[in-house]
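Following up on my earlier thread - several people asked me to post the actual chain instead of describing it. Fair enough. Here it is, all 70 residues.
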Amino acid sequence: RYFFKEVNFMEKIRTIQQCLSEIKLMDKDTAITENFIRTLCKNGEVKHFKSGSKYLVSLDNLLEFLSSNK
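Reply from S.P.:
Thanks for posting it. Predicted structure:
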């Protein structure tokens, strides 16, 4: 519940849609989807917190997770 204790405030925090947009800028043909990112959040695979119904995701941590699991 207290995710902010683990967040480096210099991290890029983005919505799932914004994360996907950033990934598509790096790789326009990516197979990553919003649903996949949401599943990573629900399973606790990437740093995130919820604001209302939105997931706010650490973009840096998401990219690190994706690059380490190729």
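The beta strands are 13-15, 48-51, 54-58. That should answer part of your original question.
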